[in-house]
Please model this.
Amino acid sequence: MIGEASFYGLYLPWIMVLALAALLVLWGVRRLLAATGAYRWVWHPALFDMALYLLLLYALSRASAYLQ
Model:
């Protein structure tokens, strides 16, 4: 997971790339949860979304470390 990614000469930390990927996945998951009505069972949606984002970021970081 330690490293950087180069986008047209702009070096970004690898965790930033993973954070953006987790954000994109979170948007899709939130739309899916909202469409199914799962947010009716959530006590605090903002807290739930933050925890879900952190879980997605952790999963992506573990997957990227496993693939290297």
